[in-house]
Design brief:
- By secondary structure, the protein is mainly β.
- The protein is built from two helices and twelve strands; from the N terminus they run H-E-E-E-E-E-E-H-E-E-E-E-E-E.
- It has one domain: Clam (outer membrane lipoprotein receptor (LolB), chain A), CATH 2.50.20.10.
- The protein has a twelve-stranded mixed beta sheet.
- Strand 2 and strand 3 form a beta hairpin.
């Protein structure tokens, strides 16, 4: 889950560039040897800032700005942590075209693959514990409501600060 936060934010001859604004619905699957977990939601991107708004199987909002804010309303908790160096834009810019619409980036000894056909369609990789992670995007738009990027949560939540 942490690694998807790291990666998730027009095609040049060898790299992918997201538009200044991007939004899409997504389905994320994480598959281990015995089990597959499925998550659904919407993702919003605006010039380097990203919001992942999970709606299934439970609600969660992740704002990625100068810091990462993870709000889980069901448990009334907000976790605040440092932002990783490599943003989705950085990872996409460092990607190389393998064939047709398939691209690959290597970040921190991990291989991340993208399917990009006029817009970002899919990200997939194997995480640090061997799970296969796949995020499929649909209903993509090159616009996003700017208000979604405002970090907001109830005043009475428990706040956890991580390094």
């Amino acid at each position: 889950m942490k690694f998807i936060i790291l990666i998730l934010v027009s095609i040049l001859s060898y790299a992918i560039t997201l538009p200044k604004q991007f939004s899409a619905d997504f389905i994320q699957t994480i598959t281990s040897d015995k089990k597959t977990l499925t998550y659904k939601g919407k993702v919003f991107y605006n010039q380097g800032n990203i919001v992942w708004k999970y709606t299934y199987p439970y609600k969660k909002i992740i704002w990625i700005e100068d810091k990462v804010y993870i709000y889980e309303p069901d448990i009334m908790q907000l976790t605040i942590t440092k932002r990783k160096k490599n943003t989705l834009s950085d990872i996409l810019k460092n990607s190389k075209k393998i064939k047709n619409n398939l691209y690959k980036a290597e970040i921190e000894d991990k291989k991340i693959y993208f399917i990009y056909d006029k817009t970002l369609k899919k990200i997939f990789y194997t995480d640090e514990i061997g799970n296969k992670v796949e995020v499929n995007f649909f209903n993509q738009k090159n616009s996003t409501p700017l208000k979604i990027f405002e970090v907001h949560y109830p005043k009475d939540v428990d706040i956890i600060y991580q390094k």
